[in-house]
Amino acid sequence: MSAVAIRCEGLGKRYRIGPRERYYALRDTLAGAMYAPFRGLSRLVNPRSAGNHPQSNNTIWALKDVSFEIKQGEVVGIIGRNGAGKSTLLKILSRITEPTEGAAEIHGRVGSLLEVGTGFHPELTGRENIYLNGAILGMRKAEIGRKFDEIVAFAEVEKFMDTPVKHYSSGMYMRLAFAVAAHLEPEILLVDEVLAVGDVAFQKKCLGKMENVAKEGRTVLFVSHNMAAVSQLCPTAILLENAKLKASGKVDVVVSQYLMTGGQNKGDADLTSCSLRRGTGEAVFEWAQSRNKDDQISQDFSIGDNIKVMFGLKFSEGCPSVKLAVEIRTADGVPLCNMTDVDSEFKLERTKEREVLSVCIQDVRLYPGSYYLSLWLGSTTSTEIFDYAQDCLMFNIIDGGKLTMRQLPRSAGLLFLTPEWKQETPC
């Protein structure tokens, strides 16, 4: 059995919110001691005095009763909405802040990258900060020296190693910070949502490095809102919701649960309250539904099924002619397709203020997973957008249906194709 790297039991962190407490000088303390007996007498006479009321409305729990165990060598993704407690958890594990209650056991040297430039001194050069960070991790100068060239090459900031890091761009800062955290051989690597600062090429480089770190038997905790990166890197995941642990287990199961907790509809959406919305409003989507082969509202489909999307439109007086589009994206935000009425040679013949339309997406060949559908409505004579209801419907491809009986892992791809196979006669 693998040794435990991290164990949290009943972990909680409470913060005070609102205005800062008043600063008390020595004379205030002495005066308070003098009047203490009288305040005690006042509470006896009037038990309902303000002094007896618990001041619970000026505090907030950033983390509450969180318990889990991570074995050495595991790579775990930590996901959740903003404010769920992800960064607070990593700060406790990094010993940046102490928990209000519970305990966190850490077995091994921790390297953390919680925000750009954590642990860097702005007045020191890149070279000096590498040695400073190594010393903070408990490494000897000789150990850091052996890794120095590798760190510099990875960060791609050779020209600026003797420049104070306060003159670095945020991207350069992050490149060097990640290179230091990943190369100085901590047993446990904690990475918060910092890769968003770098360019795409460097993000891929960082993910590759974290995969190598994991293969070397070190433990990685990875916080990200990029579900594609979490799914690629982490076999398991932890979901935090409202400061509490909501779920933990296999990454695909936890990611699916996270996507479902985002208030997504069950195939029927009232678009009058859609938050991801933009456009002039001359014409708008009022509602949308996804329907299965039996013309029933559904969110779950199989590979090869038809998905019927129905929606209601409302037009303002004098609205010009319109064109329509339907978009499909992965749960990670990767665009898959954009289908317009022009492509299908369809033209809306508007006769009244409200119209109901449907579009049937036939023989859907997407691998199992969750997908988002957006509706777009614009002018036929200009680039003006009347309404764009982004990610207004979510649907799931749950299995291969009658097309395939084999296992279809998430890593297999995005599209399921069935080409024609033929055995040719040798020449």
Largest sheet: 6 strands, mixed
Count the E strands.
19
Proportion of residues in extended strands: 25-35%
- Described by the principal axes of the CA atoms, the overall outline is globular
Element order, helices and strands? Answer: EHEEHEEHHHEHEHEEHEEEEEEEEEE
**Average pLDDT figure:** 82
Spatial separation of the terminal alpha carbons = 57 Å
Q: Order of strands across the widest beta sheet?
A: 5-6-7-3-8-9
The rounded Rg comes to: 28 Å
SS-based class: alpha/beta
Fraction in helix: 10-25%
The low-pLDDT segments are: 49-55
Number of distinct helices: 8
Describe the structure.
- The chain is α/β, with parallel strands linked by helices.
- It contains 8 helices and 19 strands.
- The chain has a 6-stranded mixed beta sheet with strand order 5-6-7-3-8-9, sandwiched between helices. Strands 11, 13, 15, 16, 18 and 19 form a 6-stranded mixed beta sheet that branches.
- Strand 6, helix 6 and strand 7 (219-223) form a beta-alpha-beta unit.
- The longest helix has 20 residues, at 26-45.
- The radius of gyration is 28 Å and the shape is globular.
Please outline what is shown here.
The chain is of the alpha/beta class and 427 residues long. Helix content is 24%, strand content 32%.
